Automatic annotation (TrEMBL):
Full protein name: (3S)-malyl-CoA thioesterase
Organism: Yoonia tamlensis
Cofactor(s) needed: Mg(2+)
Highest taxon of the lineage: Bacteria
GO molecular function, one term: catalytic activity
Binding annotation for Mg(2+): 120, 146
PANTHER family according to UniProt: CITRATE LYASE SUBUNIT BETA, LYASE BETA SUBUNIT, PUTATIVE (AFU_ORTHOLOGUE AFUA_4G13030)-RELATED
């Protein structure tokens, strides 16, 4: 169980100083500083130094700072790895991870940082369990655009098996798992529906491409007032039942057993962690 909230993780192109600056005041739980797909080939080298400068300047507060590099099989991967090893960041995100061999190669170049994996290739999805279990692995990020491309899939329904495989692998290994982006960044209703689906599948949060997506995502992946109220009533009812020697309570017509109390306590802990983050 992770104590840190991961409701929202915003991609920011490393090549855009204005967006890098704006992110210092955005209420996201994590930032994915991007050197890969959001940066054109002719801007890669400059983006690397723009990003290093922004991170050195600081001001990102409690947000987890994750840098997405280019793959080690590209012209930019090795230089990215060398630069990221010296950046003031919390983790490195490797795109298009196919197997643990990709992680071993990066781990040898960056000895200290936790590694996150973009899960976005058919081979990577099929190897999700071993990738999640790698000793340096800290989190999965679904790359639903690349995955749809490689699968020749249309729509999210065609990717549900892949999404669930990643959630299963991440939960088994105890790492974070974040859902893919919702491309239509002006479609609030569509985003709300996709957030609800991802949350109900077990994702810890969602990746975003635009600040306008933050509020909806934070609301969807954080416990609601109703969730918190129910958790408190379940704990109170279970404690009362236990005091009378009972192992089961009933709340709102549903049984409450010890396993439900584990979930209820996790809900309250998450609410506390969010409150702490938002007051930092
Ligand atoms: C999608 C965008 C190109 C839209 O940009 P723009 O037209 O500038 O939007 P706005 O004018 O509405 O912007 C309003 C202000 O917000 C700032 N802004 C915009 N986007 C971001 C951001 N991502 N982070 C921080 N700040 C942002 C603008 O600077 C404006 O600020 P101000 O001028 O002060 O008012 C743009 O949003 C964008 O580039 N988004 C990121 C795209 C991206 O990162 N793509 C790659 C990641 S997705 C991916 O690769 C998924 C995966 O690999 C897969 O396979 O699925
Ligand atoms: Mg991708």
């Amino acid at each position: 169980m992770h104590t840190r909230p991961f409701r929202s993780a915003l991609y920011i192109p490393g090549s855009k100083p204005r967006a890098l600056d704006k992110a210092r005041g955005l209420p996201v739980d994590a930032i994915l500083f991007d050197l890969e797909d959001a940066v054109s080939p002719d801007a890669k080298a400059e983006a690397r130094s723009t990003l290093a400068d922004a991170l050195a300047q600081g001001g990102y507060g409690p947000r987890l700072k994750i840098v997405r590099m280019n793959g080690l099989d590209t012209d930019w991967g090795a230089d990215d790895a060398a630069a990221i090893a010296a950046m003031d960041c919390d983790a490195v995100l490797l795109p298009k991870v196919n197997s643990v061999a990709d992680l071993d190669a990066l781990a040898a170049l960056i000895p200290d940082l936790p590694i996150w994996a973009m899960m976005e290739t058919p081979q990577g999805i099929l190897n999700a369990a071993s990738i999640a279990a790698h000793p340096r692995m800290a989190g999965f990020v679904l790359g639903t655009n690349d995955l749809a491309k490689d699968l020749h899939a249309r729509g999210r329904a065609a990717m549900v098996t892949s999404l669930q495989l990643c959630v299963l692998a991440a939960k088994a290994a105890g790492i974070v798992v974040l859902d893919g982006v919702y491309n239509a960044f002006k479609d609030d209703d569509g985003l709300r529906a996709e957030c609800a689906q991802g949350r109900d599948m077990g994702f810890d949060g969602k990746t975003l491409i635009h600040p306008a997506q933050i509020a909806i995502t934070n609301a969807a992946f954080g416990p609601s007032a109703e969730d918190i109220d129910l958790a408190r009533r379940q704990i109170a009812a279970f404690d009362a039942a236990a005091a009378e020697g009972q192992g089961v309570a009933v709340v709102d017509g549903r049984i409450v057993e010890n396993l439900h109390i584990v979930t209820a306590r996790a809900t309250l802990a998450k609410a506390d962690a969010i409150a702490a983050l938002e007051t930092t």
